[in-house]
Structure of Phosphoinositide phospholipase C:
Amino acid sequence: MQQGTLMRKVKSKSWKKQRYFKLQDDCMTIWYQSKRTGKTESAFSISDVETVREGHQSEVLQSLAEEFPPERCFTIVFYGRRGNLDLIAGSAEEAQCWIQGLRQLIDPRSFALTFALLSLTWIRDWFQKADKNKDGRMNFKEVQHLLKMMNVDMNEDHALRLFQDADKSESGTLEGEEFVLFYKALTQREEVLSLFQEFSEDGKKLTLLELVDFLRQEQLEDEGTEEMAMELIDKYEPSETARARHVLSADGFLMYLCSPEGSIFNPQHRALWQDMNQPLCHYFISSSHNTYLIEDQICGQSSIEGYIRALKRGCRCLEVDCWDGPNGEPVVYHGHTFTSKIPFREVVSTLGKTSWGNSSLPPPLMGTSPPSSHPQSAGSQGQQAPWRSWALQGASLSPTPQELKHKILLKGKKIGRLEDTLDGPGDEVPNVSDDDNGAEAEEERRRAKVGDLGWGLAKDKESLAQALSDCVIYCKNVSFRGFEEAYSHSRPSEISSLSEAKARKLIRDAGNEFVRHNAWQLTRIYPSGMRTDSSNYSPQEMWNVGCQIVALNFQTAGMEMDLCDGLFSQNSRCGYVLKPPFMRDEETLFNPGDPSSREGPSPITLTIQVISGQQLPKVASSKDGAIIDPLVRVEIHGVPADQAHQETKYIENNGFNPRWDETLQFQLHVPELALVRFVVEDYDKTSRNDFVGQFTLPFANIKPGYRHIHLLSKDGTGIPPSSLFVHIHITK
């Protein structure tokens, strides 16, 4: 057997071990072994890989930048909480071979190949897990154990029938192709086969015209359906003979339904499909809070990995809290807390390398100021050069994302030149609303004291670094003193930051004024100071009034980040989503508390038939041999009148192929703002249900018809092959 490619596996500046890496024959598994001992150290599946980063795009590899050139370095990033794998190849050519090879294997456009390979891989993996005595055969007792592992509670007589049908050699065991037959019988999708036969005259194939009928009648595809049908056959039909005859088999039909074209998410909206020539205030912008933190707000770790993860996730608004460190070198951390510190220069370097990884659109940057202005501060000659080369040097009062490509916006307070002074009382502590609790008020005072995201000490305007102040052009920070005051004295180039409690009070007391304000000026919302555990508030209520920069703690998984990921999963994941027309009009009458204020069509009805689930994962904390009792809950997040949820009954002891066949129905008054969240839970009658998986998307991106929903884990990563099969009907 070939040893594979010799590369360095790196865990720290001092820990660099040589390992042989090799892609297995199934093209889905990579193992690596020690050069010294020859023992296999670990292996991982291609399906576990989220992305591949090129160059010094990790904290560890950045620390080795002087020792190894970026052309030889790359990072394999896994789904979930598994740590990254940092590698150094022997040459730039070897590195490119692995980088491009891995990217091709994980590319969703290679779906047909990947789907087939994954199927074979899952079959092989299940066989190896169930073959307890490792004799290459599986007896019926081992098959029964396998069914438990696969989340299946099957009648013993039925399981024995499937076993005997697959045992062609009548040996009392399954091996090789016999187990493949058993697995295929086990995973037979009766609901899909029934749908296939409904449109197939002979029950064995769909002709081109029959497939066109299905696409028009059920999937509501109304343009270029014949061309689309031909493309689907060429792409997903596994039989060469069938492809030549322009027909689709049942296997090809299932592959289409499981593909991106058969997804509930409109594939056309995955691309950059929105107008990017509107003013910034007309967009929702993916935004993070204290981006550098990857744990809690008081004692947690600061890491450049926080910036890398946020940017790779599509975040376009980052926070850089900069302070003087040892020897006057600026550091980034959560001021006046016990969080760890990272050098400011490393943050600058990281942003320069990764800011436009997913998007050339601008990431506005924010930072609290260092309490010094000596030559080593963040605004000094040695460290302002990168900022000046990226920072916007001149723009209209209302620049657009398109105009700001490959530029960074600095948000902060200003001195000199563009304004003779800061706006007088703008340096005072912001007014705190009556319902702000003590901790939140203290958080606002702390932020104001250190400059509320300004560069340099805001209480002493001479200490603000002039060079960086000159770069603050569009996002000049001002205190918010009411909508009337803002309309009379503020400019479109200014921005205010509000606590979540202050924003809620404004939503409650002046919803329409808030929407109008956000039609011409940027507003940023940040979490309460009470959220020391890095928990999140719901961003939906802030989006309902058009707040653009709704900052969340990206490191904390949960419903709030599901909504954020769901909203920004469209538009090429560029981090910008255009607000609906009625939220871009400065004279709008819209108030989210009164849906009738929205001018437009009457409410629509969303009908969802939840048909089935496939290979749902076990709950991590479940006992050995336990099988889940899955139910599906559908949640609508939008204006108050649209907030709703409904759920199916639970299916007892079947996480492998549960059938619900239940219909849920919702009325949407403001569909343009609605997000739809599908949640699968393990029912528990004595305690809280356990989370199994979820998928969230904007209503505007839903494709009607028979669709698969590919579930995501709690932290937003894929859990193949887990999915739901649904039918979507929309009535206007």
